[in-house]
Specification:
By secondary structure, the chain is an alpha+beta fold. The protein contains 3 helices and 3 strands.
Length: 135
């Protein structure tokens, strides 16, 4: 049943639709088409534009990661994330994390913006963690 319907559309309805389209004989004939004739051409033009896009899409440049915006160019690149811990005796709180990616909304305190930055760029920057030494 489905194949019969598709066959009917391709063999009967599509040719009849194409015969009724107001396709001009010359390029200049497009300028003389009325608004209603252009509206009748829109579905065909839309399908042709979609087919053209799908045809050239594999050849379009791919979106690349923003590797040119790396912050960390050489420090501990073998690690998935660079995190340094420093013991400081006089801290008011037990741990303080400072931003090293320069994207924190609460700079200089880290708000974990480096996670999104690392995903977008392939970078491995992380916060500077200051720890109060417990004796």
């Amino acid at each position: 049943m489905v194949l019969e319907t598709i066959s009917r559309i391709i063999k009967v309805q599509l040719p009849a639709y194409l015969k009724r389209l107001p396709l001009p004989e010359t390029v200049g004939g497009f300028a003389r088409l009325t608004v209603s004739e252009w509206l009748r051409l829109l579905p065909l033009l839309g399908i042709l534009a979609l087919l053209g896009y799908l045809t050239i899409r594999p050849f379009l440049p791919k979106k690349k990661k923003q590797r040119d915006s790396l912050i960390n160019l050489k420090i501990q690149k073998e690690n998935p994330k660079v995190v340094n811990e420093i013991d400081i005796e006089d801290l008011n709180s037990a741990n303080v994390c400072y931003c090293r990616c320069w994207r924190s909304k609460t700079f200089p305190v880290c708000d974990k913006s480096h996670i999104k930055h690392n995903e977008l760029t392939g970078d491995n920057v992380g916060p500077l963690i200051l720890k109060k030494k417990i004796l």
